[in-house]
Amino acid sequence: MTQAIVIRSLGGPEVLKVEEIELSPPGPGEVRIRQAAIGLNFIDVYFRTGLYKTDLPFIPGKEGAGTVTALGEGVTEFALGDRVAYASADGAYAAERNVAISHLVKVPDEISLETAAAMMLKGMTAQYLLLQTFPIKPGHVVLFHAAAGGVGLIAGQWAKALGATVIGTAGSKAKIDLALAHGYDHVIDYTKEDFAERVLELTGGKKCDVVYDSVGKDTFPKSLDCLKPRGMWVSFGNSSGPVDAFSIGLLAQKGSLFATRPTLFHYVATRAELDACANSLFDVVRSNKVRININQTYPLAEAGRAHADLETRKTSGTTLLVP
């Protein structure tokens, strides 16, 4: 038996219930992990509310790190005692779990399991956004919404290390200060300023090469007004709600813009892609160009409180659930 959070009906944070569940031996191509920590991400909220579809009941969560305690049939790539992490394996909210090895990477000795759990999904998201979706080059001007969030704090440091001018948005002085300490050149308080007008001022009218937008409804279509002609709007989340349907002709009107709606799981679909993305993240963290700060920790049993705080913007940066 192991403790897990099980969702049996969709809804608010109150549907996150602690249960004791039976854990079967790992199957072929799987290992069992005793989890040290579990990452909290907004995608967990999307599944809990039903915005993203899955079958009921289910254990939420995509990201975690721990130690291998049992091997399934045919597993030779991992050994007992290996320190491992993952960012795309459903069912993370559990003290112990079985994971297909196709989702796993080994954690370098220099990186703690807690740090690994805090950075895998968020850090690999920053990696594919900045190095693959719109590859950042020196001189690029970037706007990153939710600058003080988990992805935002990693992305700000990484984009700065790549030579960009990095502009962010945040909703309080504390979050603005946090973002400024993590690579951002400028941070706009979206509760007090029109962020599109402020971007125009900050760039001397030249605007941005790319906008990375995980907010969605509240930042569209103004995000398009922040872009240079032929700039790219990267919509990778919708914390304020999904973007309403719009005419593709709007992209022409705003300057022959590009728009994409990427997701991490299409960038790490093969073993080679997963290893390359994870190793790129591990390298930039080990180089100290990007530091991972764990700003909040909750017991796994209090996952509901963690979700409530996340949704009401009481959290900043990275949050962990600890079994």
UniProtKB/TrEMBL annotation:
The alphabetical list of record keywords is: NADP, Oxidoreductase
Q: Does the keyword NADP apply?
A: yes
Q: Which residues cross the membrane?
A: none
Note one Pfam family from the annotation.
ADH_zinc_N
Domain Enoyl reductase (ER), chain residue ranges per copy = 11-321
The record's PANTHER family line, in alphabetical order, gives: QUINONE OXIDOREDUCTASE PIG3-RELATED, QUINONE OXIDOREDUCTASE-RELATED
What this protein is called in its record is Quinone oxidoreductase
Species name = Mycoplana ramosa (Mycoplana bullata)
